[in-house]
Protein backbone atom coordinates (compact mmCIF):
# COMPACT_ATOMS: atom_id res chain seq x y z
CA UNK A 1 0.00 0.00 0.00
CA UNK A 2 2.96 2.30 0.49
CA UNK A 3 3.89 1.66 -3.15
CA UNK A 4 0.30 2.47 -4.16
CA UNK A 5 0.49 5.71 -2.19
CA UNK A 6 3.77 6.59 -3.87
CA UNK A 7 2.27 5.83 -7.28
CA UNK A 8 -0.61 8.20 -6.52
CA UNK A 9 1.69 10.92 -5.19
CA UNK A 10 4.18 10.98 -8.08
CA UNK A 11 1.92 12.88 -10.56
CA UNK A 12 1.40 15.64 -7.98
CA UNK A 13 5.18 15.98 -7.56
CA UNK A 14 5.78 16.86 -11.22
CA UNK A 15 5.06 20.56 -10.71
CA UNK A 16 6.80 20.72 -7.31
CA UNK A 17 6.88 18.78 -4.09
CA UNK A 18 4.16 19.64 -1.55
CA UNK A 19 4.40 17.58 1.56
CA UNK A 20 0.73 17.91 2.53
CA UNK A 21 -0.49 16.49 -0.78
CA UNK A 22 2.09 13.70 -0.65
CA UNK A 23 1.24 12.71 2.91
CA UNK A 24 -2.45 12.84 2.02
CA UNK A 25 -1.93 10.26 -0.73
CA UNK A 26 0.03 8.00 1.60
CA UNK A 27 -2.61 8.22 4.34
CA UNK A 28 -5.30 7.39 1.79
CA UNK A 29 -3.39 4.23 0.85
CA UNK A 30 -2.51 3.33 4.46
CA UNK A 31 -6.19 3.52 5.39
CA UNK A 32 -6.73 0.69 2.91
CA UNK A 33 -3.86 -1.19 4.57
CA UNK A 34 -5.81 -1.04 7.84
CA UNK A 35 -8.91 -2.41 6.11
CA UNK A 36 -7.14 -5.12 4.08
CA UNK A 37 -7.23 -7.85 6.81
CA UNK A 38 -10.99 -7.35 7.18
CA UNK A 39 -11.46 -7.50 3.40
CA UNK A 40 -9.47 -10.74 3.20
CA UNK A 41 -11.51 -12.24 6.03
CA UNK A 42 -14.78 -11.21 4.35
CA UNK A 43 -13.66 -12.71 1.05
CA UNK A 44 -12.73 -15.97 2.78
CA UNK A 45 -16.15 -16.17 4.45
CA UNK A 46 -17.95 -15.41 1.20
CA UNK A 47 -15.94 -18.11 -0.58
CA UNK A 48 -16.96 -20.65 2.07
CA UNK A 49 -20.62 -19.61 1.85
CA UNK A 50 -20.99 -19.35 -1.94
CA UNK A 51 -19.56 -21.58 -4.63
CA UNK A 52 -20.73 -19.38 -7.49
CA UNK A 53 -18.39 -16.61 -8.63
CA UNK A 54 -21.42 -14.50 -9.59
CA UNK A 55 -22.83 -14.65 -6.04
CA UNK A 56 -19.47 -13.74 -4.55
CA UNK A 57 -19.20 -10.79 -6.95
CA UNK A 58 -22.74 -9.60 -6.06
CA UNK A 59 -21.96 -9.91 -2.35
CA UNK A 60 -18.80 -7.86 -2.78
CA UNK A 61 -20.74 -5.31 -4.81
CA UNK A 62 -23.21 -4.89 -1.96
CA UNK A 63 -20.38 -4.65 0.59
CA UNK A 64 -18.49 -2.11 -1.52
CA UNK A 65 -20.82 0.70 -0.37
CA UNK A 66 -20.33 0.41 3.43
CA UNK A 67 -16.62 -0.45 3.12
CA UNK A 68 -16.00 2.55 0.85
CA UNK A 69 -17.86 4.76 3.33
CA UNK A 70 -15.76 3.31 6.15
CA UNK A 71 -12.56 4.01 4.22
CA UNK A 72 -13.70 7.59 3.54
CA UNK A 73 -14.46 8.20 7.22
CA UNK A 74 -11.23 6.53 8.38
CA UNK A 75 -9.14 8.58 5.95
CA UNK A 76 -10.88 11.78 7.01
CA UNK A 77 -10.36 10.93 10.67
CA UNK A 78 -6.61 10.49 10.15
CA UNK A 79 -6.29 13.60 7.95
CA UNK A 80 -8.41 15.89 10.16
CA UNK A 81 -5.64 16.83 12.63
CA UNK A 82 -3.54 18.21 9.73
CA UNK A 83 -4.93 21.72 9.06
CA UNK A 84 -3.12 22.19 5.76
CA UNK A 85 -4.99 19.24 4.27
CA UNK A 86 -8.18 21.19 3.74
CA UNK A 87 -9.58 18.58 1.32
CA UNK A 88 -10.13 16.06 4.12
CA UNK A 89 -13.50 14.24 3.73
CA UNK A 90 -14.52 15.49 7.19
CA UNK A 91 -13.84 19.09 6.15
CA UNK A 92 -15.44 19.14 2.72
CA UNK A 93 -18.59 17.40 1.49
CA UNK A 94 -17.42 17.72 -2.10
CA UNK A 95 -14.17 15.94 -1.35
CA UNK A 96 -16.04 13.35 0.75
CA UNK A 97 -17.87 12.32 -2.42
CA UNK A 98 -14.57 12.32 -4.31
CA UNK A 99 -12.92 10.11 -1.67
CA UNK A 100 -15.94 7.78 -1.64
CA UNK A 101 -15.94 7.28 -5.42
CA UNK A 102 -12.19 6.74 -5.44
CA UNK A 103 -12.49 4.30 -2.55
CA UNK A 104 -15.28 2.40 -4.31
CA UNK A 105 -13.07 1.98 -7.39
CA UNK A 106 -10.16 0.87 -5.23
CA UNK A 107 -12.32 -1.70 -3.42
CA UNK A 108 -13.47 -3.13 -6.76
CA UNK A 109 -9.82 -3.34 -7.86
CA UNK A 110 -8.90 -5.14 -4.62
CA UNK A 111 -11.68 -7.68 -5.14
CA UNK A 112 -10.65 -8.14 -8.78
CA UNK A 113 -7.04 -8.83 -7.79
CA UNK A 114 -8.18 -11.27 -5.08
CA UNK A 115 -10.40 -13.19 -7.50
CA UNK A 116 -7.60 -13.27 -10.08
CA UNK A 117 -5.16 -14.79 -7.58
CA UNK A 118 -7.77 -17.29 -6.40
CA UNK A 119 -8.56 -18.30 -9.98
CA UNK A 120 -4.82 -18.71 -10.69
CA UNK A 121 -4.38 -20.86 -7.57
CA UNK A 122 -7.37 -23.00 -8.53
CA UNK A 123 -5.92 -23.40 -12.01
CA UNK A 124 -2.56 -24.50 -10.61
CA UNK A 125 -4.27 -26.92 -8.20
CA UNK A 126 -6.39 -28.42 -10.98
CA UNK A 127 -3.32 -28.81 -13.20
CA UNK A 128 -1.46 -30.50 -10.35
CA UNK A 129 -4.37 -32.88 -9.72
CA UNK A 130 -4.59 -33.60 -13.45
CA UNK A 131 -0.86 -34.38 -13.55
CA UNK A 132 -1.26 -36.76 -10.58
CA UNK A 133 -4.20 -38.51 -12.26
CA UNK A 134 -2.25 -38.82 -15.53
CA UNK A 135 0.73 -40.23 -13.63
CA UNK A 136 -1.45 -42.82 -11.89
CA UNK A 137 -3.06 -43.67 -15.24
CA UNK A 138 0.33 -44.17 -16.89
CA UNK A 139 1.49 -46.33 -13.97
CA UNK A 140 -1.64 -48.47 -14.20
CA UNK A 141 -1.15 -48.86 -17.97
CA UNK A 142 2.48 -49.85 -17.44
CA UNK A 143 1.54 -52.36 -14.77
CA UNK A 144 -1.16 -53.85 -16.99
CA UNK A 145 1.25 -54.00 -19.91
CA UNK A 146 3.91 -55.65 -17.80
CA UNK A 147 1.44 -58.26 -16.56
CA UNK A 148 0.54 -59.02 -20.19
CA UNK A 149 4.11 -59.10 -21.50
CA UNK A 150 5.87 -61.07 -18.76
CA UNK A 151 3.81 -64.30 -19.05
CA UNK A 152 3.76 -64.04 -22.86
CA UNK A 153 7.54 -63.59 -23.06
CA UNK A 154 8.14 -66.29 -20.46
CA UNK A 155 5.98 -68.90 -22.22
CA UNK A 156 7.55 -68.18 -25.61
CA UNK A 157 11.04 -68.46 -24.15
CA UNK A 158 10.24 -71.75 -22.40
CA UNK A 159 8.82 -73.13 -25.65
CA UNK A 160 11.98 -72.09 -27.46
CA UNK A 161 14.16 -73.74 -24.79
CA UNK A 162 12.08 -76.91 -25.00
CA UNK A 163 12.47 -77.08 -28.76
CA UNK A 164 16.26 -76.62 -28.55
CA UNK A 165 16.96 -79.11 -25.76
CA UNK A 166 17.34 -82.11 -28.05
CA UNK A 167 18.96 -80.51 -31.08
CA UNK A 168 21.11 -77.77 -29.49
CA UNK A 169 21.52 -78.24 -25.71
CA UNK A 170 24.28 -75.57 -25.54
CA UNK A 171 21.91 -72.96 -26.98
CA UNK A 172 19.16 -74.10 -24.63
CA UNK A 173 21.54 -73.78 -21.65
CA UNK A 174 22.49 -70.23 -22.67
CA UNK A 175 18.83 -69.28 -22.95
CA UNK A 176 18.14 -70.74 -19.50
CA UNK A 177 21.03 -68.76 -18.00
CA UNK A 178 19.88 -65.51 -19.63
CA UNK A 179 16.26 -66.15 -18.62
CA UNK A 180 17.25 -66.87 -15.02
CA UNK A 181 19.35 -63.70 -14.84
CA UNK A 182 16.59 -61.65 -16.44
CA UNK A 183 13.92 -62.95 -14.05
CA UNK A 184 16.17 -62.47 -11.02
CA UNK A 185 17.00 -58.86 -11.95
CA UNK A 186 13.38 -58.17 -12.90
CA UNK A 187 12.22 -59.32 -9.45
CA UNK A 188 14.84 -57.10 -7.82
CA UNK A 189 13.42 -54.07 -9.67
CA UNK A 190 9.75 -55.01 -9.41
CA UNK A 191 8.93 -52.87 -6.37
CA UNK A 192 10.67 -49.75 -7.71
CA UNK A 193 8.97 -47.03 -9.72
CA UNK A 194 12.34 -45.94 -11.08
CA UNK A 195 15.55 -47.88 -11.70
CA UNK A 196 19.02 -46.78 -12.70
CA UNK A 197 20.19 -46.71 -16.29
CA UNK A 198 22.71 -49.45 -15.45
CA UNK A 199 19.92 -51.73 -14.21
CA UNK A 200 17.84 -51.00 -17.32
CA UNK A 201 20.76 -51.81 -19.63
CA UNK A 202 21.47 -55.05 -17.73
CA UNK A 203 17.85 -56.14 -18.18
CA UNK A 204 17.98 -55.27 -21.87
CA UNK A 205 21.23 -57.21 -22.36
CA UNK A 206 19.64 -60.44 -21.11
CA UNK A 207 16.38 -59.77 -22.92
CA UNK A 208 18.12 -59.14 -26.27
CA UNK A 209 20.39 -62.13 -25.74
CA UNK A 210 17.36 -64.40 -25.42
CA UNK A 211 15.66 -62.83 -28.44
CA UNK A 212 18.80 -63.19 -30.58
CA UNK A 213 19.08 -66.82 -29.60
CA UNK A 214 15.43 -67.33 -30.53
CA UNK A 215 15.33 -65.41 -33.81
CA UNK A 216 18.97 -65.55 -34.91
CA UNK A 217 19.83 -63.25 -37.80
CA UNK A 218 16.22 -62.09 -38.16
CA UNK A 219 16.65 -59.66 -35.26
CA UNK A 220 18.98 -56.67 -35.54
Helices and strands in order, then pairings?
Elements: H1 2-13, H2 19-49, H3 53-79, H4 93-164, H5 169-189, H6 197-215
Helix pairs in contact: 1-2, 2-3, 3-4, 4-5, 5-6
The secondary-structure element order is HHHHHH
- Number of helices in the DSSP assignment: 6
- State the shape: rod-shaped
Q: Roughly how many Å apart are the termini? A: 70 Å
Largest sheet: none
Helix content percent band: over 70%
The chain-level mean pLDDT equals 78
Total E-strand runs: 0
Low-pLDDT ranges: none
Tell me the fraction of residues in β-strands, as a range. Answer: under 5%
Class of secondary structure makeup? mainly alpha
Rg, alpha carbons: 37 Å
Amino acid sequence: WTIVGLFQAVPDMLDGFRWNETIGKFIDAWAWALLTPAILLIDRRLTSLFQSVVRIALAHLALSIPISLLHTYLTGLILYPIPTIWWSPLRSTEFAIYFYLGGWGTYCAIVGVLQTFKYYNRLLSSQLELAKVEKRLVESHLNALRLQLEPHFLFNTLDAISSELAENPVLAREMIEDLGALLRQSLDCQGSKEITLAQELALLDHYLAIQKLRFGDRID
